Amino acid sequence: MVVLVVVAIVAVLVVLLISTASSLRVVQQYQKGIVFRLGRVLPTVREPGPTLIIPIIDRLQKVNMQIVTMGVPGQDGITHDNVTVRVDAVVYFRVIDPIKAVVNVQNYLFAVSQVAQTSLRSVIGRADLDDLLSERDRINAQLREIIDEPTEGPWGIRIERVEIKDVALPESMKRSMSRQAEAERDRRGRIISADGEYQASKRLAAAAHEMAREPESLQLRLLQTVVEVAAERNSTLVMPLPVEMLRFFEKAAGMAGGSSAEGSEDREVERSAPELEDLDEALAREPQEPPEPAIDEPPTRRSE
Fold this sequence. Notes:
By secondary structure, the chain is an alpha+beta fold. 58% of the residues lie in helices and 19% in strands. Among the domains are: 22-64; 68-174, 2-Layer Sandwich (Tetrahydropterin Synthase, Chain A). It is built from eight helices and eight strands. It has a three-stranded antiparallel sheet with strand order 3-2-5. The protein has a three-stranded antiparallel sheet with strand order 6-7-8. A two-stranded antiparallel ribbon has the order 1-4. A hairpin with a 5-residue loop joins strand 6 and strand 7. The longest helix has 43 residues, at 171-213.
């Protein structure tokens, strides 16, 4: 009898151990568990750590609560200004309600991927090309709101962040944008150059005005230029010549030209005087012929 009792106790302990082992579950720190009892989900969510369920009756399903990074495949679309582009993005989301994520949607990963693709095409159609290229933050925020609206409430999934990775443009559009950017840089360069020349001309005019007030400053500037030229190792020979000396030579050349012109005019007058006297004597010696009498023409008879 004693042996039978011991065997029964051991059998009961073994059954208890087996049932305990089959009913014990461990939920990881980044997970949460939901229990289905006879097909119905229990409202209590099992927290991380060891948890017990009823064998055969209960079924524990673990849900990952980490942030999921999902790439959105490139979507072809036409922007609001009729430009064909291809845009791809990345979505960051996490589960905030494990019961809704398991019960209300069959595969929340696939569902979020499809919503992200359709929302991306919708945003491309409403935005201009310049907005897609320059205002990424606003487009990302708008895309996040569109994706988060059908997922957070019904599915228990929160969209943390949406980023547009790349905007692929046609080759013709790239060439056009390159020419536009080059023309814009050329325009800015010409404006800056013209502004610099304008400011330099104003400075030069002011410097010329100051040098006109103080003539000695021009000589000092000349000496400074000579020093700058002599500082370099070259074979250039600079001989400064005062401006006053050049002006003296100009005045002397003008006076010499004026005196030679007056002398030539006097000589021409002296040469022409005897010729005029001989012409007067020849005219005086010629006899004067009387004028011819006028001949009266007979009157013409009118024809009757």
